[in-house]
Amino acid sequence: MALLYLPNEIILQISGILELPDYSSLLRCNRRLAGLLMPTFLNYTLRCPNTQGKLALQLAAKRGDIGTINALVDLGLPSLITEGHHISYICPTLTPTAIITLLSNKYFSVDARDTLGRTALYIAARDNPTAVRCLLSHGGDVNAATYRARKTPLMRASKSNEPDVIRILLADEETDVNGQDLYGCAPLYFATDHGCVNAMAALLEYSGINVKLSSFETACMKGHWEAVRMLLARYDMVD
Question: SMART domains this protein is in (predicted)?
């Protein structure tokens, strides 16, 4: 017999032994099932907010289910989750659908920070150009720096050798290509220090970048000879 034709009591009994992804699928299957199971589903997420609750938010975000996100927020679930206000903690893959769905609710902010002061944009700058583009389109602060070390998304992308991310960030006129962290290091220094020549190439395309002698000295000291050659080609190197 099809599930839809079973008595409500039997459906509720069956739902009690399902894993959360299967439970979530039932909510999308049919309006009657959604109306029947939603109260139980909401209570289910509150039992273990850091596991079941987080997964419920993540699944809803990934499938673009704004209604379920709103219901979970109204229930107060995100406030019970460690870092529950941070969209990259809720959904680490930061797909455009998840970003758009979570940011549709005012509880979530594009510039929310974790305990280290990292925004979703900073985290995405490591290896996720699609997320970077989406977050910027939703008003993400391109220069938001971490709390202590004052590192920006562009510094993270430079250190991670992510030329695509660098070019997306530099396409925003607000990006500070010469901004310095707590120790006086700029994005080009991070790329040079790690021998990230692809990142260096993307940074050096930008006309407003300051090419400092310290980057050249670091490249020589660490034996990053391709980086040395790239820097020597610059006539505007300054001390």
Answer: ANK
